[in-house]
Structures are given as structure tokens and as C-alpha cells.
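Key result, reporting period 2: structure in, sequence out.
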């Protein structure tokens, strides 16, 4: 047998568990990944990628200068040069999720041992929270991958003090920032680790700083050395001045079941154990978890997906009690522990498939970062196929407007809820100064009423219903939670309705 064949067999023997974990993780992330269309954030990021790819129909719809850098969008634009697809966008995000699982394994192996790395990667690969978010075309999976890569590079540097790993620490931390500007928390994590006993050689510290600055410099120059400067500052001011969108206990109320309660119990035990041991590998995981949790807890704006970057650290910490128990167990107890780990993993897989792959929690639909919007893609595609290019469309809020802009480009889409006050709206959105006038004289061609936006903005939903009743617009299309051919079955209230605007006066 050739040396290549022997090495392949040896690799499979030594890494069979990791390969199995990656196969399962890939399956539950990719299966039926396009069952529901984009939500608002996904549509914006994919639209920006299409604009970067040179797709003219998206350039006017999606400004490149928005609230976040464009790293994920850049990667996606390479695909969009060939074809624009929501499935490919989500597959790219899932790929970053799988890479995170792999590097969690490697990080656990060098911080603790191969057993910790394998079990932590297995937990992360099937944890519902990580599965749900990495099945969406959001920025957090990319941010989480580069955060994990930064921690891996940092740990490798501490082992051999090699300048190559110093370069990688600087570059990967910069890519965390370029994934999403809040990725600057990586700098805080590294700073606290240096204060807690880790260190860089002085010349290597210079390498880290220079590689970080050089990597982020194109983004900084693009924003602050061009005509986009004013727009960039408007976004910054808007982000800072935004009122809280969720109560302070949002994460504690919404995320525990998506980490699963057994894993949370192990996390609490592991955190206590890591604090007690207080060795460098434990400190790295503790600081990583604590900085991100505290950062987003005190950030006024909260989203279901924001805490994803701490999930690898959470899985590593949760594995520590199992590793300690395994090391001091007899053969029989080790068997029981294997059964226990298998039961936790099975429960995680069941929860992941129940809440993200085959079904979704209806009560969480519309929550930023939880899932796509059911039937929104279908409505947008109906508009694309049944309305002329250049049609003007009015929605309740920007959520449905963004989805329509992506799936049905070359239409002008307005949102009723966009504030006239520049300090209270996203700078990329333009308000309607006089919607009544535009509707009265048919300067708007179609009105889209959706229950997701209506539940979040009841005032503007009622305003739209008032216009629909006042001018007696014609209902031309509806999308319901399900459809049936049986006339004896009552069809539920529509999720989304489209009305055609007509004016007896024929316009202005």
C-alpha cells in the first residue's frame, strides 16, 4: 500500500469521530435549508452581495454603505457573479458554521485534550441555537468562525511563540471586526487575556497590531476617506441613538431552550469548575464567554442571533465537567457517561430538527435572527411575475420591503412606518411624506399587508387598513399558512395580502 493510502487510513482512524460530527452537523444545517425564504436582514445582506457582484438591478435597491462591514457579502458576491440564490447564500453561512465546529475541536484539543475537543465540537455541531442561526444568511456565523479562529491562533501562539501565529491573531481578529463591527470585542478579549497572564513578545505584539490595522485599513479608508463619510456617520449616530428593542432579560428568556437545559446545567458546572481551577486554558474560555455575554447584554439593541460568537466557548466550558468525571471513572462509569453524552446529543439533535430543520416555533417567527419569513418569498415572487417593472409598492414596514426588493428587483418599495425624523430611522430608508396623497392618486400601484409587520407596528397596520377600506382597493393575491383544494376546509386568515391600487381620476 502506498504511503498516501496509509496516511489516509491513519487519518480516518484518528479522526473518525470528528468526521462523523461534521457529517451530522452538515446534514442538519443543509437539509431543506431553503424551505422558507429570506427574512429582512438576510435580504439586505444578500442584496448587498448582489450589488457587489455587479448586478445592476440590486445596486439602487441595496446601499453598500450601511451599518456593517461587507466581509460576508464579499464572499457571497463571488457566488453571485454566477447566480443569485437564497439557498447558496445560506449554504455559505452553513459552511462557516461547519468550519467553526472543526476549529472548536482543534481548540479544545490544544487547550485541554482531544476528548474535550471532540465532545465540545459534537455539542456545537448539534446545538439548536448554532444550527438555527447558521442556517440563515446572517453575519453572525462568519463572525463566530473568525472569533474562534482568533482564539485558536492565540492559543497556538502561546504554545510556541511563533511569529506566524502572531500574524494570524492580528488578521483573524481584524476579520472578526470586518464580519460585523461588534467583532471589535475580540480586541477586548485578547486585552483581558494579556492582563490575566498570557503575553506576546514585544516584536510579536507589534506584528499583531500592524497586521490588524493593515487588514481593516481598506474598510476604514473606504468609509472615512470618500463621499460615503456622511452616510457612515449617520449610521453610527442612528445605531447609538436607537431605543432598546427588547427588555433587559431578553436573552435569558429566549435562549435557554435553544442551548438545551442539560447543556446549560453542564455550562454552569463547568464555569464554576473553570473559575476554581483558574489555569490559562480555563481563563481563555471564561474571558471569551464573559466578554461577549456582558457586551451584548448591555448593548441596547438585542437580537436572537447576537450571542452566537460565545457558543463555541459555551460548549468547551460545558464539556469540562464531563472530562473531569471521565478521568476519575471506572470502566463501568465510563460506559454510563457515554450513554449520558449520547442522550444529551440525541436530545440536541431532536431539538434542532424540531425547531429549525423540519419545523419552526410559530411564536418566534418575526423575531430577528430566528428564521426566515413564511410566505414572504412567495409574495415577492408573485410581484415579480405579475407586476411590471417600475411598479411602486407600499408595505407596512421595512421588513417586507427588503424581502420584496431582493426577490422582485426593479420595483420601488416604500414602507409606511419609516419615520420622518432622520434620528429615528435607518439612513438607507426614505420616508413617504404624504402617503394619503400618493395612494389617492394611484402613485402607489400595490399595497402589501403582512401579519408580521402588523404585530410589531399596530398603529401603521391600522393606518394601512384604513387606506385599504377608504379607497376600496382590490384584493389580488393572498398567502395563507397552508393551502387546500378541499372547499369544505376553512382556510385560515392570510399571512400576507396584496391589494391593487386604482384611482378613478386616473392619477395626477
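The corresponding designed sequence is given below.
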Amino acid at each position: 500500500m502506498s504511503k498516501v493510502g496509509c496516511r489516509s487510513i491513519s487519518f480516518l482512524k484518528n479522526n473518525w469521530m470528528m468526521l462523523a460530527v461534521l457529517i451530522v452537523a452538515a446534514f442538519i444545517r443543509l437539509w431543506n435549508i431553503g424551505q422558507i425564504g429570506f427574512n429582512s436582514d438576510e435580504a439586505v445582506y444578500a442584496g448587498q452581495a448582489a450589488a457587489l457582484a455587479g448586478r445592476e438591478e440590486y445596486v439602487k435597491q441595496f446601499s453598500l454603505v450601511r451599518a456593517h462591514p461587507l466581509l460576508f457579502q464579499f464572499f457571497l458576491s463571488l457566488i453571485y457573479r454566477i447566480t443569485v440564490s437564497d439557498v447558496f447564500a445560506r449554504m455559505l453561512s452553513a459552511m462557516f458554521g461547519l468550519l467553526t465546529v472543526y476549529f472548536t475541536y482543534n481548540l479544545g484539543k490544544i487547550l485541554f485534550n482531544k476528548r474535550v475537543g471532540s465532545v465540545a465540537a459534537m455539542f456545537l455541531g448539534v446545538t439548536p441555537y448554532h444550527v438555527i442561526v447558521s442556517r440563515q444568511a446572517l453575519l453572525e456565523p462568519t463572525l463566530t468562525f473568525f472569533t474562534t479562529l482568533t482564539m485558536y491562533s492565540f492559543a497556538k501562539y502561546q504554545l510556541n511563540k511563533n511569529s506566524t501565529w502572531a500574524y494570524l491573531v492580528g488578521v483573524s481578529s481584524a476579520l472578526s471586526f470586518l464580519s460585523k463591527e461588534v467583532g471589535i470585542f475580540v480586541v477586548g478579549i485578547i486585552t483581558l487575556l494579556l492582563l490575566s497572564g498570557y503575553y506576546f513578545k514585544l516584536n510579536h505584539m507589534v506584528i499583531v497590531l500592524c497586521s490588524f490595522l493593515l487588514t481593516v485599513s481598506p474598510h476604514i479608508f473606504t468609509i472615512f476617506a470618500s463621499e460615503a463619510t456622511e452616510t457612515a456617520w449617520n449610521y453610527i449616530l442612528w445605531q447609538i441613538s436607537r431605543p432598546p428593542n427588547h427588555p433587559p432579560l431578553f436573552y435569558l428568556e429566549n435562549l435557554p431552550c435553544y442551548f438545551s437545559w442539560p447543556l446549560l446545567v453542564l455550562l454552569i458546572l463547568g464555569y464554576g469548575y473553570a473559575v476554581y481551577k483558574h489555569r490559562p486554558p480555563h481563563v481563555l474560555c471564561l474571558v471569551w464567554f464573559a466578554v461577549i455575554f456582558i457586551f451584548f447584554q448591555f448593548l441596547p439593541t438585542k437580537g436572537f442571533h447576537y450571542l452566537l460568537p460565545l457558543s463555541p466557548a459555551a460548549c468547551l466550558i460545558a464539556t469540562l465537567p464531563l472530562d473531569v468525571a471521565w478521568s476519575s471513572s471506572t470502566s463501568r462509569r465510563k460506559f454510563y457517561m457515554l450513554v449520558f453524552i449520547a442522550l444529551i446529543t440525541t436530545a440536541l439533535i431532536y431539538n434542532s430538527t424540531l425547531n429549525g430543520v423540519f419545523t419552526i416555533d410559530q411564536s418566534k417567527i418575526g423575531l430577528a435572527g430566528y428564521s426566515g419569513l413564511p410566505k414572504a418569498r412567495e409574495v415577492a415572487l408573485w410581484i415579480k411575475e405579475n407586476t411590471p417593472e417600475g411598479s411602486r409598492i407600499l408595505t407596512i414596514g421595512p421588513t417586507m420591503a427588503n424581502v420584496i426588493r431582493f426577490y422582485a428587483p426593479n420595483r420601488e418599495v416604500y414602507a409606511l412606518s419609516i419615520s420622518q425624523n432622520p434620528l429615528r430611522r435607518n439612513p438607507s430608508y426614505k420616508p413617504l411624506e404624504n402617503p394619503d396623497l400618493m395612494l389617492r392618486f394611484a402613485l402607489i400601484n400595490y399595497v402589501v399587508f403582512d401579519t408580521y409587520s402588523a404585530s410589531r407596528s399596530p398603529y401603521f397596520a391600522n393606518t394601512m387598513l384604513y387606506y385599504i377600506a377608504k379607497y376600496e382597493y382590490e384584493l389580488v393575491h393572498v398567502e395563507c399558512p397552508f393551502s387546500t383544494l378541499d372547499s369544505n376546509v376553512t382556510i385560515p386568515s392570510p399571512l400576507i395580502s396584496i391589494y391593487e391600487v386604482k384611482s378613478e381620476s386616473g392619477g395626477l
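The chain is about 65% helix and 5% strand. The CA atoms of residues 96 and 142 lie 6 Å apart. This case is discussed further under Risks and Mitigation.
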